[in-house]
Amino acid sequence: MSKTLVRFLLAFSFLLGSSGCFRYVPTPVGTTPIGAGVQMVVTPEGAEQIEAIVPSEGRAPTVRGTLMGLEDGNIILSVPVTRRQTGFTGSTISQEIHVPADAVVSFQQREFDQTATILTGVAAAAAATGIAILLSQSLQGEIPDTPEPPDEFAPGVSIPWITFGVGR
Q1: Domains in the chain, CATH or no CATH each
Q2: Alpha carbons within 13 A on the beta-carbon side of 147
Q3: Is the peptide bond prior to 26 cis by the omega test (within 30 degrees of 0)?
Q4: What are the φ and ψ backbone dihedral angles of 130, each rounded to 5 degrees?
Q5: What's the pLDDT tens digit per position in 133-168?
Q6: 61-83: string of b/e by CB count within 10 Å (b at 16+)?
Q7: Number of Cβ atoms within 10 Å of the Cβ of 168
Q8: Among the listed residues 52, 62, 149, the one whose alpha carbon sits nearest the alpha carbon of residue 104
Q9: Which of 33, 74, 104, 166 fits 98 for a cystine, CB–CB 3.0-4.6 Å?
Q10: pLDDT tens across 76-121, in order?
Q11: Going by C-beta distance under 8 Å and a sequence separation of 6 or more, which residues neighbour residue 70?
């Protein structure tokens, strides 16, 4: 068994696990429920209005967040700004932004993709099984037999980590 194959299987299972099981589906703004995850592509003019909160960094001005409502021709989104880590607990700090509806080029709702989830789970399980089989084959014959305990302590009482003779 080669180390290259094991590395490939590990990398493959990592890529499968990190692919995600969601997709964005084009949806009319008015039919999207409040609290849904959304993604919007905005015009350059719309991007200038929200640049301080959601920097575009030279790429297409795409905004991802949670739909909070529609008000006065604006789409209100809660967008993650930063992540705060306290010990093992992490929380996302979000900020509400108002994006003019006429500045939105495309509006998409985040949707659970059941097919991708099932395929990812099956592929990850197959990769893990393959790795386990390859590792068990490579370790065959390398595990030494456990030696028999010496008879010098018999008869006695044996407690894990402590052994003492009785009646000597």
Answers
A1: 24-112 (2.30.30)
A2: 3
A3: no
A4: -60, -40
A5: 877 777 665 555 666 666 565 555 555 655 555 654
A6: bbbebbbbeeeeeebbbbbeeee
A7: 6
A8: 62
A9: 74
A10: 999 888 888 887 888 888 888 888 888 888 899 988 888 877 887 8
A11: 29, 30, 76, 101
**Tokens coding 48:** 């200038």
Alpha carbon 92 to chain centroid, angstroms: 15
Q: Rounded to whole angstroms, what are the CA distances from 148 to 44, 57, 145, 165?
A: 77, 67, 9, 18
Scanning 51-166, the segments in alpha helix (DSSP H) are: 114-139
Pairing of strands 104-112, 22-26: antiparallel
Amino acid at site 55 = P
Confidence of residue 67 (pLDDT cuts 50, 70, 90): very high
What region does 83 belong to: left with phi over 0, alpha with psi -120 to 50, or beta? beta
Residue 76 and residue 83: Cα distance in Å, rounded? 21
Nearest alpha-carbon partner for 56 in 83, 79, 73, 85: 79
Q: Are strands 162-165 and 89-100 parallel, antiparallel or unpaired?
A: unpaired
Alpha-carbon distance 60 to 153, whole Å?
76
Q: Sign of the C-alpha dihedral, residues 19, 22, 27, 33?
A: negative
